[in-house]
């Protein structure tokens, strides 16, 4: 017989689905990924804490911002297991994610500013390529569009 109070009184997966807008299959997937950890009642039915609604909402928002499941899992792992996360807990995660988003925004703005030029090399302009990337020397720095990834253009 379960000893955890959630096992008998927690929220059903259907209720959590209704509150979050997530299909039950997605909630089970997030459980498999370790993002929520419901208890089970004697019949084996999942029982969620109210805090799991916030966690799942955070997952949805974070994925919409481009964060991976691994990044989200790492952030959620910093939240306390023994109590409902408070505003300070969420602020700590928000600050970290905010810094990452700021870096991504800066990278995207830089990319947008250089889209009409050389992408080093992929190549949008064979005429420019001869100037900025003769004999594909950017390839020596690694895979991908090296100049857009931040490598400096070295002119001879």
UniProtKB/TrEMBL annotation:
Signal peptide: none annotated. One of its GO terms (molecular function) is 2 iron, 2 sulfur cluster binding. Pfam families: MerR_1. Keywords: 2Fe-2S, DNA-binding, Iron, Iron-sulfur, Metal-binding. The keyword Cell division does not apply. Residues 10-78 form the HTH merR-type domain. One of its GO terms (biological process) is response to oxidative stress. It comes from the Bacteria. This is Redox-sensitive transcriptional activator SoxR. It comes from Roseovarius albus. The lineage of its organism: Bacteria, Pseudomonadati, Pseudomonadota, Alphaproteobacteria, Rhodobacterales.
């Amino acid at each position: 017989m379960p000893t955890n109070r959630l096992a008998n009184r927690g929220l059903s997966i259907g209720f959590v689905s209704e509150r979050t807008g997530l299909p039950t299959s997605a909630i089970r997937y997030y459980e498999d990924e370790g993002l929520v950890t419901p208890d089970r009642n004697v019949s084996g039915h999942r029982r969620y804490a109210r805090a799991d609604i916030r966690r799942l909402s955070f997952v949805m928002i974070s994925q919409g911002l481009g964060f991976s499941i691994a990044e989200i899992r790492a952030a959620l792992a910093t939240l306390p297991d023994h109590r409902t996360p408070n505003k300070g807990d969420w602020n700590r995660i928000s600050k970290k994610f905010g810094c990452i988003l700021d870096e991504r925004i800066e990278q995207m703005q830089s990319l947008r500013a250089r889209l009409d030029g050389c992408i080093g090399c992929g190549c949008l302009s064979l005429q420019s390529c001869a100037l900025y990337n003769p004999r594909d020397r950017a390839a020596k720095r690694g895979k991908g569009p090296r100049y857009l990834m931040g490598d400096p253009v070295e002119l001879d």
